[in-house]
Every structure is written in C-alpha cells, then in structure tokens.
Amino acid sequence: MKPLKLTLLIAAVLTPVSPIFAGNLSDLKAEISQMRADYEQRIQQLEQRLAKAEVTTSNVQEEVATVKASSTPLPPPTNRNTFNPAISVILNGQFSNYSNNPDNYALNGFSLQQDAGLATKGLSLGESEMTLSSNIDQLLAGQITFALADDVGNTTINIEEAFIETLGLGHGLTVRAGRFFSPIGYLNERHAHAWNFADAPLIYRGLFGDQLSTDGLKISYLLPTDQMIELGGTIGNGDSYPGHGTHSGIGDWLVFAKTAGDIGINHSWQAGVAHWQSSPQSRTFGDANSNVTYNGDTDISNVSLIYKWAPNGNPTQQNFTLLGEYFYQHDNGSLNQNSTATAYNGKQYGGYVEGMYQFIPHWRTGLRYDRLGSSLSAENTNIFNDANINLTGSDPQRYSMMLEWLPSEFSRVRAQINHDQSSRNDDTQFFLQYTVSMGAHGAHSY
Amino acid sequence: MADINIFACEPEWASLSKELGGDNVTVFSATTGLQDPHHIQARPSLIAKARQADLLVCTGAELEIGWLPLLQQKSGNPAIQTSSNGYFMASSYVRLTDVPTVIDRSQGDVHAAGNPHIQTSPLNILNVAQALSKRFQDLDSTNAAIYEQRWQDFSQRWQLAINKWQQLAAPLKGASIVVQHNSWGYLFDWLGLNKVAELEVKPGVPPTVDDLNNVLNKLKATPAKIVINAAYQPSRATDWLVDKTGITKVTLPFTIGGNAESTNLFSLFDDTIQRLLDANK
Question: B141 and B217 share a domain?
Fold first, then answer.
C-alpha cells in the first residue's frame, strides 16, 4: 500500500468517529457507562454475598467448634470389675406332672444314661448354671460353665464346659481346647436353658444322655467367602458318652461342615453335616439294671437344617424358626456279660422337627415331633435280651407343644405338654418351668 | 490400590464411610433402617462378612453388645478385635448424654455409658467423620491424601447443610414433643426441642397402664402437638396416645433407610426436619 493511503487509513482509525455516527457514539458511551454501572453493582452484590457466606461459615464453624468442645468425650467411668470375668447365673425351677411313674421310664431301643431321664415329679429345682468368661490376654479368651443339680438332697457339681479359645488368630481360624459341647448338629452346642422346650429331643436323650461333649481340641476354619462356610474337626479323649473308657491317644474324633445364608431381608438358614467316631470300652448297654456292656466302634452321622424368618429382618416383633435334625448311629463290636462275649451290630437313628413362632412381642409358641428307630442284633440272644433294651415292638415317638412368656431377654416362663409314646406305655406329660439369667450373659449364637 | 473392606454395623456409618472413602472403600451394612440395632442375631452371613473385614465401624456404647462380640469371636479375624486398629466405635468421639445413675436390670435396658443414638445429631456425625477419616488414613496410608481431601470436602458440605437445617428448623425451637422411646436426646439438644414425656419409661419394657396415664396427666399440664417414634419401632403405644388425645404422630426415619426419602446422611436430616415442620404447623 502507498504510504499516503496508509497514513490516511491510520488517521481515519485514530480520529474520533465521523459526525455521521455522532449520535450513535453518545448512545454507545451511555450504554457502556450503564453496563459499567450494572457490573459494578453486581460485583458489589457478589462481594456482599461472599462476605455474608464467609461470616455464616465461620459462624457455623464457631458453633460447631463449641459443640465439638462440649462434645469431647468423657473418659469412661472406671469399672472396678474390669479385669474380672463376666459372671452369669442361670436359675431354673420346674413343676412336672406325668400320667405314668417317671421312674419307670425307658427309651425303647436305646440305652438310657442315668442322669438323662425324666425330671422329678412335682416341684423341683432344675439345674442352676454358672458361667464365667473373660479375655485372658491378646491371644486367648476363656469360659467355664458349672451346672449344679440337687437330687434328693445330694448336690452334684458338673463341669459342663471349660475351655480356652483363640481370639482373632487370623485367616478365619479358631482353635479351642478343653471341655466343650461337641460341634455335632445344631442343638448340641447350646446350653439347655437356650433350648426351645423343657426337655431334650428324644434322639439327644437316647444317643448322648442329653448332650455330647468333647474333652480335647477343636479347630475350625471359616472360608473367606460371602456365603458362610465353616469346616472343622475335634479330637477327644473318647470318654464322653457314648464313648467310654480310657484311651492313650485320640479316643474320639469328629469332622463337621456348616454353611448358611440369607434369602433377602426376611429369611435366613443354616445347614450342617457332622460325623463322629469313637471306640468305647465297657459302655453300659441296656436299661439301668443291665450288666451287659458294649465294646467296639461307634460312629454317629448327623444332618441339621434351621430356617428363620422375621418381618423386615427385625425379630423383636414377630419371628419364626423351623429346625430339624437327623442322627444315625452305628455300633459294631461285641456285647459282654460277665466273661461271655457275643458279636453285636446295632443301628440307632432318629430325629426331630420343631417350629417356634413368636406371635407378639414377649410371647412364643412351639410344636415339636420326635421319632426314633433302631435295628439291633446280637449273635447270643440271651445276653441281648438280658440287656432289656427292646421294650416294645414300636418306634418311639413324641409330640410336644409349648407356650412361653418372656417378660425380657433375661426371664422366661414356659408351659409344655407332651404326648410321649417312647417308653413302654403312652404317657401324658406336663411341665411348667421358669428360667432366668442374672449377670453379664453373652449373646446366644444363631 | 489399597482398598479398605468396611463392616458397618448401622446404615448411618455405612453411608458416612462411603462419603469419606469413595471408591477406595468397600462398605457392607449389617443392619437396615427397619431393624432394631439392639436386637440383631449374630447370624452366619454377618460372621462371613466380618471375617473378611479390615475395619469395623459401629456405634459402641453397648448398643451392639447383643451381637457384635459374637461376630468378633466367631470370625477369627485379628483386624476387628477390640484392641486392634480395625475397631472403630463412633460413640468414643462424642460426649454421650443421659448417663444413668442407677445401672440395674430392674430399670429396663439401660445403656451404662449413656445414650448411644448419636446419629440423630449432625454435629455428632461431624465429630465422628473427622476421626473416621483419620482412621482411614492410618489404615491405608498410600491413599491418605485422597481421604484428607474427601474429608475436607465432606466437612464443608456438611457444615453448610447444618446451617441450612438450623435455619429451616428455627420455627421448631421450644416445641413440646412426646417421644415413644428416649432415643432422640441429641436431636432435641441440637434443635432446642422440648421433651415433654416419654411413653417407654423403662427402655425396652412396654409401658404399663399407669405409665400411659401419667403421660396423659403430664400432657394436660404441658400440652404437646407431636409424638414421635422411630421407623423400626412398633407404634402401639404411640397410636394409643393419638387415639386418646388427637396428638399428631410423626414417624421419623431415625437412620438411613428408615423410609424411602432417607437415602443418605443429607436426605436423612432433610426428611426428619421436614416431617417435624409439617406436623408443627
């Protein structure tokens, strides 16, 4: 471009707008200054709001700080009992009525242990139980349960359980040592006061004399899965009924597996299998007066299934439980009477189903059906008959119904009626019992 | 990438853990807003979850004493034992009120350490959040910066929300309210509400006819517009009171999941305050 034209162009740009646009220029100026005023006003407003917000936040922070200050936790009140074990006591009392003489009770096809029979007729003090439990150190916790029973003025103390157990061993492992209820089936690991009926299921009475225990070691392993799967085993001294006698090494052993899950919010279940084996020596065989004993191998298999329901998963209002177990015992050995022995093979089996329904808070009702069977044979029928174990030709069975009132989690009054067809003659049995717990009672497991 | 596997006993702590941990945490809530946290069974599915957990986030103050110790015992998990770093009890970071002078079973289900229902006040939740974030940073130091940033972000949002709720709830100050169970202490302290009477004089023990008549007499002297109960509680006693006096019943969610509107910590208080305002009109 020629320098002259360029100069003129520059001059035109730099010169204020020509008079043709004079009117629009003042409009433009007015607009700009209006915009400037608007923006200034808006900036002012924003600054005010920001200042307000800052004050508010600092106000809230101040208030929160004062609350935080007043909210600093107080040290927990010192408890002089801190290092002592938690103590709990269970008291029981019972009124029992039978249409037959309870002293004559015998379980058809099964050898009845001396303590496991029917409760004394009339008013009686049931078992009183005391449990002490505590953490021992960073590795172990311990627990002991005594059962005190008074039978016609003669008080017996029985150590039901006394064991130590690892705390958080890792990898889902837990080790327990001492005396404890064996992990066979569902009901076996629960103390009697936690049962749903006043008496043990017939199969427990017949096979274990109410409950099977292990003096030894238990190892269990919980798989790292969302579905609960637990595997484990025990080894024991082989002395607990239906084991018997002294064994220098492992007298009995058990393996078990459990799995459980939830179905939605309202339902949960657990299934288990177990197998127990021992080699009893001179175990009493037959009724209380029998002088026949059994030597040989004994093994017991078990399956159990439990199902629970609660609306919205909240069991405090209503809940329902259905529970069933089946046991199968096989004896293979010999029966002995004085110095004579005979080959013996026996199968004893049976189970129960019970259903419990809490229909309103503090009230529960339940139904139970027990059924047993046996198939026993010995070469020498004289010895076998002397044992007096087969009383009738029919399989034992029993129907039970109960109603409980639970004023709180710590007390219970229960009424129960049985139609018992397990002994020589049919019996109608009625029980009224109270069970209370005092002290620091740990929670019951599922 | 380190991930903290969290077992939260109640949904409020599950939600708080998710706010503070984001994608770096996996959270499981043992209970829902429709369950009574006092009476939960230590069922196998909870044991299996506890076995895999790195961190327990629960209320404490004996609220979960009926089931949590059993989970610790049966899980065989060293991380969640009481002495370890994976054991976090929210009530340890808050001053508890209503500490009973008499601790005896005849008084009902008393909590010896004080009222454990701390989640009813957002000021308590702020205290717990600060401590919880620190615990995350302790357990997972590689992601400490992320947790710190999430805490700062949550703290800001939460404090602004607290201010908003306080302003919204200003008309409720001094309002006389009847409660079914004494679980609302912290809410009442925060909003300046006045508890006129409680239906369950002994916690966990259903009110007797005398107890209920006492409440009626109290209301004649100091009338109240509202009676509140929690979503998981049965409302028999409350319904009886409504029947007798025409008082307005308000069922508050109490925690997340107590009703459809309470889906997180913020909407829990939005809904709680809204329901109280609606009933107070």
Answer: no
